[in-house]
């Protein structure tokens, strides 16, 4: 069979990794792809930047039209990130009859329907394994490996930066700001980490997973999200005392009335595999109606893990499997039955609550009464010794930690609002969900 | 596209699960397969046995030729297990132009080359995702998801019976024989558990994985194996004291000089995800040269998890992907370069050693000297109080536990033989490997 010529747009870390695999393992890739896969073009912003040996024989240019207009190119790899320019390149490539491989979760989360419609119109594949949890072949696991199942729920650690920071906070007792600074120094966090730590990156990936696992057409903005930037060490410590670890989780569950979706720091029981995912690793737990509980673990980002996923997609394009998958599964299709989202206020979960209360008789009773009126029952309580008295001999406030049974979000929010108005409550309460 | 008619041979637990999915989720399966998948025939041994509602509309017969000779049948599912009869059915089905889906690891481990040659000759697919770690889509993960990688090593918990027994022994402090009896009472172990507990079942699966991950053509008999049937609680306890859990592992690693393969109870550090795989769950750790460390977790057996894998293979056959994978990857091909196995005597690993020694001065020195002469260095030592003195006032023997650094198998065996001949050594020593 004829070779597959690749035009790669974007030559950052991941692009360099893709080039390394394609140029250093020519025989291996050809054997598994059923034909040679040649990196013909690489499109860069700055032609003057020094390139290393992996680009020998590759035509490095700064004009994407050279690639799109080359009839020999069979597939365009989009690795520039961002949304607008990437969207243009992907749409142009499809219109020119190229298959597309992309690692761009933001693009898919925002423009999935438009891009997949263009792919259908052109009868070309769009493969995006690298867009979610780079080193974990999770999209293939769900859409091929678990194809017999209706996915019932998923819970995932999808941001290595956040997981690294949380691991440092949990294991080292380091405050958030210090852990972030350490992560930046080690290259595990960007100079501007906002999109990672506020949960946006995780929400992009959850939007893609929601389509693959549930057929739900979701924009990132539709996903309620909280980041890790306001987590306090105290809560990680209490969670540990209760036998839990706090992880930033993407959560999706088919509930009565619709699909629950959220991104939030959540408590995970220590004996669950998700609790044992440390440092820069990612993991995705998928529960299917036939297969039951499954989990997929690996590096979520980085040069070679993400390149591994991009090259796997190129091989899938070269063999013809990607075209079949795109055609049959028909992602983001307007013909698919809509999957309603459950409003956040109507979702149900167990909760961890921390209050800072005056050390006086009757306070716990007042809080418990308010929870009880809202139908929220208490599973366990921790209260430690009060903090030291102030100069007037007034005892310091006492942290009170309550784990609830399942509670409807709306009721819980109402209860917290009411509790925070009590004059014996000394600070706004902290609330975290518990992942089942 | 025309529907895919399925002839299923064998209607035990897994077959019933496959029938349930195919008959209860007709729409879901057709959508993902791109065409209807109809269970047309089920071949059973005893026609008089009562069948439940999942077989309405299915022609249940006791003659496999009805299926093989039906030109409408596109794929034969072999679920009878065992080797000889299954081999005949699979070869006949391929010769008749049917694709084949099988869950039969023993068949592939013994006759992989013959069966895949027959598939090539007939230009038909053989799909066998269900043969290894039922609920975990591990073959697809390796041959598609990680296609860009050279797999460097894998370590896997592949037998749920053994893992259940080991979990009970570790967490409950129950002796092997009791844990086995409990597992049998709960249906987690067969009445005759030999092939599970002696490591044969795990070795069958490792033979399949060795082909998929390394292209190595291995028979089960070529794989050195030890089971869990001689494990003592004492060793699980010492391992825990050292921060390890004992698991029955299938191990494969590309080493200098060849592929290391073994099945053996092994120590796994508690902070590794493999150590946290409990009860009937399986897991496979795969290290690739690009992707690094990955892990796949789920149920390894049982009605619906295994049926999930069989139906995924049927969907893959229906879409045409399975035929592409079979053609391109060309498993057990005589044209593939041979992958030499490293002789067991030349493999290297860290080891856990337990000796029962007389409580006299100089004994540890003698043992350490013998190890030293063989070039084996000691990483750590545990020695507890001696056991109670006997009626003559002679102190009881003392258990001595030594963890070694990397040691060549041959040197280690020589050293143990020499140590066991010392007159101060009271019982044959125990040796377990450590998984890195």
Précis, in short:
Helices cover 37% and strands 25% of the residues of chain A. By secondary structure, chain A is an alpha/beta fold.
The total tally of domains of chain A equals 3
CATH architecture of the largest domain in chain A: 2-Layer Sandwich
The overall pLDDT of chain A, averaged over residues, is 94
Kindly state the number of beta strands of chain A. Answer: 16
CATH superfamily of the largest domain in chain A: Dihydrodipicolinate Reductase, domain 2
Helix count of chain A equals 15
Q: Can you summarize the main beta sheet of chain A? A: 10 strands, mixed
Low-confidence stretches of chain A: none
- β-sheet strand percentage of chain A: 25-35%
Compute the CA-based radius of gyration of chain A. 24 Å
Structural class by secondary-structure content of chain A: alpha/beta
Helix content of chain A: 25-40%
Distance between the termini of chain A: 50 Å
The CATH C-level class name of the largest domain in chain A = Alpha Beta
Quaternary state of this entry equals homodimer
* CATH topology (level 3) name of the largest domain in chain A: Dihydrodipicolinate Reductase, domain 2
Chain pair with largest interface? A-B, 57 and 57 residues
Shape of chain A: elongated
